Amino acid sequence: MITLSVQLDQRSYPIYIGEDLLNRRELLVPHIAGRAFVVCAQSVAERYLPQVQRALGGIDHGTLLLPDGEQHKHLGTIDDVVGALIEQRFDRETTLIALGGGVVGDITGFAAASYQRGVPFVQIPTTLLAQVDSSVGGKTGVNHRLGKNMIGAFHQPRCVIADTATLGSLPDRELSSGLAEVIKYGAICDAEFFGWLEQHVDALLARDNAALSHAIARSCSNKAEIVAQDEREQGVRAILNLGHTFGHAIETETGYTTWTHGEAVAAGMCLAAEFSTRLGWLERGAQRRISDLISRARLPTAPPKIDAERFLAHMSRDKKARGDRINLVLLKAIGTAAVTHDYPLAELYGMLNRHAQG
Fold this sequence. Notes:
Distance between the termini: 47 Å
Order of helices and strands: EEHEHEHEHEHEEEHHHHHHHEEH
CATH architecture of the largest domain: Up-down Bundle
Helix content: 40-55%
Radius of gyration: 20 Å
Number of strands: 11
Shape: globular
Structural class: alpha/beta
CATH superfamily of the largest domain: Dehydroquinate synthase-like - alpha domain
Number of domains: 2
CATH topology of the largest domain: Dehydroquinate synthase-like, alpha domain
């Protein structure tokens, strides 16, 4: 088992990474305050919920199963979670446990942040994307029909338990989706890791446990270091959004049903790399390395055909926009990212229009 830490003074917490951790009572129970309430994705309940319940042992707990899919990440589902907590008389001495992918983690975290003005929660991510990204850092929230993650709060978990054994049952498409976020870390801040990914992407797709454990640990380490510097995204943490402003626009336009989050981010990273090259920031060879690695990870390298004006309208409503300025994370080199709004909007429109025309 690998243990990392997110250093946030009194709110610091561990990330446990390894095989067969769900049964490890000693990892979970010290982080439970009072009773427990497990919010679990329906797709993983039969396989993994009994293990978590056994780890809880004699701790009084309740459960709620949520439907799978980004389309269920909205305020109506928060109402379901809060309603179950109230009906079953769970008080402030309750710890919520998120068991599932990023959608369940975001919903549970936001419910924990808001129920009775805040209760603790634990992240037990069962997808690669959640293990390397959404479970770490305290971002919680839900979508609105007009934009991704527009409603939410920063609320750090008590711990993260990333059991790599859960990845064995992950569909191939979801595994690739998680690799988009893994590749992101190499692109924004870890050129050495990017090179390692180029050499080991086939092993990751083949679910080699040693390769997966290394990729998860390196990704979490990179994110933990950035979050420790900038918990609430006032500065350097914004570079974690490489590809996301483009990607969120794709998800919003397609109604959160056609593209996975990782697929949208992958196409968004390719757009960010292309735009960086068009502005003279990034060498064309580096842009090709990024698109080639994304393609080898079985991810899309171009967005769907979306009218450029609609694309920009979605981007302008992104929570990272400031006034009439669309902030973008762009690349100066593999491993070096920067946030800027200082670029010709006509150049961005032209690039998006070219993709729309095909």
